[in-house]
Design a protein that fits this description.
The protein has helices spanning about 10-15, 30-35, 95-100, 115-125, 160-165; strands at about 10, 20-25, 45-50, 60-70, 80-90, 105, 110-115. By secondary structure, it is of the alpha+beta class. The longest helix has 12 residues, at about 115-125. The protein starts with 7 loop residues before the first strand and ends with a helix.
Length: about 170
Amino acid sequence: MQDKLRRRYQIHKEVSRGCSYGGKIRVRDLTRLAEFLYSDDATIEVEFEFIRSEYDAPMVKGRLDTSLLVECQRCLKVMEKPLAIDFSLLVDAVDELVTESSLDTIYSQDGYVDIFEVAEDELILGLPLVNMHDDVACNKYWSAQEQEPEATLENPFSVLDKLKIN
């Protein structure tokens, strides 16, 4: 594995060489992701390789590992959210291939792929819609216990049951 992590890669050159890369990306360099976080003071471990898919299309395959600080929506305190995301993305695939393969695709700009954008997109998609601690007791004012059932109202059509002829 080559350690020198760059932002942009020429896709066809990297696929023909079968290169793999690894390194770290700072979250503060990913502005869209930072908007979802409590703090942008974290790093992301990135490993990826350029290969040909079984459909003979260029592909980026990799893994992202990080631990991000987010706000719990139940208690509004900071919590740590570990993420480990594996991804496999076709590059510049035609619609028929995407449908047939059931894989996601990314599109290059003039033959180049920005790996920081790929990592950022995958992490945003990997975040839960609502961040909460696993323990519901994180907010002492919130109770997950069942509420007493409300008094059942009499059915207004029950009078019709009495009028019904057997």
